[in-house]
Amino acid sequence: MYVGGILGYAQTRTEITAVLNDSTNIFNIQQKIIYKNSSTSVLKDIYLNDWANSFRDKSTPLAKRFAEDYLRRFHFAKEQERGYTKIYGINDANILPLSWVRSDSLPDIVQVNLSKPLQPGESTEINLLYQVKIPSEKFTRYGYDDDGNFKLKYWYITPAVYDGKWVLYSDKNLGNQYSPPINIKLKLSTRPYLYVASPLTQEKLVTEDQYKTSYLSGINVVTSDLYLTKTFRFESLSANSKVILTNLEDEGLNPEIKTFLLERIMKFLQTRLGEYPHKSLMITKDDYQDKPVYGLNQLPKFIRPFPDGFNYDMKQLKTIIHTYLKNTVLINPREEQWLYDAIQISLMMDYVDEYYPKMKLLGSLSNIIGIRWFHASDLEFNDQYPFLYEHMARMHMDQSLATTQDSLVKFNQNIANAYKAGAGFHYMNDFLETDAVKRSISEFYKKNVLQPTSSAEFEQILKKNADKDVNWFFKDYVQTDDKIDFKISKLKKSKDSLEVTIRNKRANGMPVSLYGLKDGKVVYKEWVEDIGSRKTVTIPRDSIERLALNYNAAIPEVNKRDNYKGVTTLFNKPIQFRIFQDVEDPHYNQMFFMPEFSYNLYDGLAIGPKLYNKTFLSRNFDFRISPKFGFTSKTIVGSAAIANTQFFDDQNLFAVKYGIGGTRFSYGYDLFYNKYTPFLGFYFRNNYLRDNLRQSLFIRSVNVEQDLNPLNPVDQPKYNVFNISYNFKDANLVDYFSGGIDYQLAKNFSKVALNLEYRKLFRNNRQLNLRFYAGTFLYNDETDNDYFSFALDRPTDYLFDYNYYGRSQSSGLFSQQIILAEGGFKSKLEPAYANQWITTVNASTNIWKWIYAYGDVGAVKNELKNAEFLYDSGIRLSFVADYFELYLPVYSNLGWEIGQENYDQKVRFIVTLDINTLIKLFTREWY
Q: Phi and psi dihedrals of 750, rounded to 5?
């Protein structure tokens, strides 16, 4: 709703004279803004968007966003790679200076104080003289590149939107500046060798010795893209009376095919939406890469499973729809992006259904022997949209469509929320069983082209066109993160009818489709509405063999596995065994087999089958059984586990997980251990999912039975340890803080330990890493050996928690593996253990990039002995922090270790081979 009057478009004008010095990447700009107050309010100030200034330093909202997403390149960039705006003066029409200010919290917004209040309907002139330093393109894909090209977005100052109040947003690399359309005249001076590409109309070109000047203009301009290039040019193609300027990769397609595809896209959009009001569209590779067609963008170029032109068609389709909507439909992109997304994805789904019916998600790969055995090969191209939303919903990291864009985690902002929105229109279209959604999109577009609008306007139009109640869509589907989850809880049969009780596990207002099946074919369908928590309906029995909810998967339901109920069959759905992990097929009870590998020095390479029920989508109940044959130990080893997770939406306690697991492996040559552990875990997080703080309380009973080692006997080869641990982690690129308290109770000892870790990345790119560890025994009857003692550098790991490759080795390469736990020392010093208490501090700081200096200090106290002070220092080579590192000792209690014999045996290393751990390294910025 727009309080205070409507926005006035084509009434605000700007005239810009810009001169580029491409050797310094600086624009010198003179700009005049004629701003008309089209509201009913009296304005004393005018706010301007100056997003070029968001690159000025490491404290801006943009820089903080990069840090939250673990994007290091901006923080470590050179000063000359960043950008800024330097304003020399702001004057009124009489060349009298106007006062202006930036706030610390919004450094890319300029507040201009007018010399006199601006009355409704009046205009005022603002003249600006400023300089814009263009940043490197390495941060956002926009800026200057190493080849001397300039790819510009939000590069000049624009008025902000006033709709009864000023709507002010900082740049956060979301690509959604909110500005009113303006009429623009641009006089652009560049070096003659720079090619100018812009969706603006070129009125005149004047070339001189040092510069060429392009005179450009546009009416109702919303976006400000401008390309100045040396090494590439844009292709200009005509499509349905519009000019498409594009540099998207075309896979070698000839111009006739490209023109045919572009004309088909434009005709489709003009039919489904309405006429595009501008003469040209600029479709760039960078806009596409910001939000690509995921899946297509990961395929290597030599793999081409789709028909010729399909990839190009999909890339152009998605980017053209994005540009089409952004330049015509004027809604608040931070608050109501979901409507853009819903229209875009639903149009893409309809386009594929019309021109590529039955296109498989894997293309022609679906027909290859081996791949076609997987259910993934059965998925159609459009199935990806609900699937990727359900991925986040299963992880309970989904966020409502009404969540502001800057509050979304990256996966939701780039993928899941857009796909949920599009799948929601598909859901509603199936529910209405008419073309009401399509007609409403078209009516909404035509009514609001280049006019201020909102999702409330679309809601009114849809309700008018729909012949069913659609309040549930806007109230529950859009405004909440409620999952959709139905179940047939009860079936009562009679001769002529079936009494079906449907349970809505989420008790929201969303409807569900009920199907009757015979021989796998649909013989009955009806929509059930107003279910509440449960509802009973009576349907004709006819020849129905099975009942199913959401059989065609039109509803993005979080769990479809319990949607079936047998009428004349013994099982609700058949059991299916598959080789290798697969996409979930809700039509079957699935179990999977796959080979699994592991390695340690004593078992050698261990290979065996794993039986499990986990699909690519997370599930609450998991089990796995993984026996293996160790080729060195010549025996059966392996693991097994069963666990269930209960989630709690909209609570800080978001999950409780309980279960039991067991392992059997070698811990020495011809020495085995068996471990089984029942556990209960409580997991906490902030409801604001971009907050990286995570907490957990974990309770377990570790039961170990191990073969007695005659060379290193322990008093308790069979023992039980009750363990309670509280852990927290607040991970961020700039500030990282984690820690925990661990309590253990066993028959002969009780101990407690505190661990704290802090990492700080300073503005000068200096990084400081600090770790504190303190542990003490409450009582200890095992002082005659150090098996349960605190370790200075290499824990004995009596709980068998750590991934040692040679845990019993006291010499050789495998003894040099280090896991930073307990004391965290790198040098092998004496005493190496503490049977009373231990306190250590570990520190490191970078010398140059990934080369660090480290130092450890600590005190170790053993029974009947004085506490001993220990220290070490050296060089840390952190190739990938916490995953691949080398520690080179230099000086310690042993003296100058670097000059001592057998120095190579003193080097310590961290190597992580676990695939799941490595995956987290590359996906952390997305979640």
A: -145, 135
| CA 507 to chain CA centroid, nearest Å | 29
Residue 63, burial from CB neighbour count under 10 angstroms (0-12, 13-18, 19+): buried
CA distance 858 to 736: 23
How far is 640 from 609, CA to CA, in rounded Å? 12
CA-CA distance, 456 to 462, in Å (whole number)?
10
Which one-letter amino acid corresponds to residue 111?
Q
718 DSSP β-pair partners: 705
Other C-beta atoms within 10 Å of 155: how many? 21
Distance CA 832, CA 792 (A): 5
Return the CA Rg of the chain: 32
Q: For 276-344, give the secondary structure using H, E and C.
A: CCCCEEEECHHHHHHCCCCCCCCCCCCCCCCCCCHHHHHHHHHHHHHHHHHCCCECCCCCCHHHHHHHH
Give helix 384-394 / helix 417-432 axis angle, nearest 10°: 120
| Rounded CA separation 303/779 (Å) | 64
Q: Where are the alpha helices (DSSP H) in 412-454?
A: 417-432, 436-448
Whole-angstrom distance, CA of residue 588 vs CA of residue 575: 6
The answer for 5, left when phi > 0, alpha when psi is -120 to 50, beta otherwise, is left
**Alpha helix segments (H runs only) across 468-555:** 471-472
* Helix, strand or coil, per DSSP, at residue 262: helix
pLDDT average per 10 residues of sequence, the chain (927 residues): 39 94 96 94 96 95 91 90 97 95 94 95 96 97 96 96 94 92 96 95 91 94 92 93 93 91 97 95 94 72 77 95 95 96 97 93 79 78 91 91 94 94 96 96 95 94 96 96 93 92 92 93 94 93 92 92 86 76 78 87 92 86 94 94 90 92 93 95 92 94 89 78 96 90 96 96 87 97 91 94 88 90 94 96 92 96 95 92 88 93 92 65 61
Report residue 94 as tokens: 């009489």
Could you give the CA distance from residue 664 to residue 770 in angstroms, rounded to a whole number?
A: 36
> In Å, how far are 104, 111, 115, 160, 466 from 49, measured between CA atoms?
15, 9, 20, 6, 40
Reported pTM: 0.89
Q: What's the rounded Cα separation, in Å, for the pair 646 and 658?
A: 9
Q: What is the DSSP letter of 587?
A: T
Instruction: Identify the DSSP state of 90.
Output: E
Q: Are strands 280-283 and 242-246 parallel, antiparallel or unpaired?
A: parallel
Give one word for 839, left, alpha or beta, with left for phi > 0 and alpha for psi -120 to 50: beta
Give the residue from 167, 113, 123, 159 showing the smallest Cα distance to 3.
167
